[in-house]
Amino acid sequence: MNLHLTKVAVGCASLDALIARMGGRADQGSVRIVTRFRPTRHAELIGGSLYWIIKHRLVARQAILGFHDGEDRRCLIELEAQPVPVLGIPRRAHQGWRYLPAGDAPADLGGTSAAELPPHILRELGALALI
Prior knowledge:
Radius of gyration: 14 Å
Number of helices: 3
Largest sheet: 7 strands, mixed
Distance between the termini: 24 Å
Order of helices and strands: EHEHEEEEEH
Oligomer: single chain
Strand content: 35-45%
Number of strands: 7
Shape: globular
Structural class: alpha+beta
């Protein structure tokens, strides 16, 4: 079982905004985000996912491909370019990132009939905690 991370999508008001942001940063099928420190358990995270929090809900994930050294002792986390929507579960906002055990990770929306619903209906159902 892989270990995952959670991170707040600062400045993104919706899943659509996150998808647009990641699409604009994509380079050859991956995206790199900057974090202050390399996670201590980084070896366990490769193959896991980074789950994004928007409006106090986990809304999407991106697979973690690797970790690289950045400027000024920062760490670059390399992710798959396209976020995958997940069943929204409540999650408090936090600074930086937090570990998420595999057993606590939400399921992808892709395998459910909810994935075929329009985004505004998904938001409403998520707000009502129905998905």
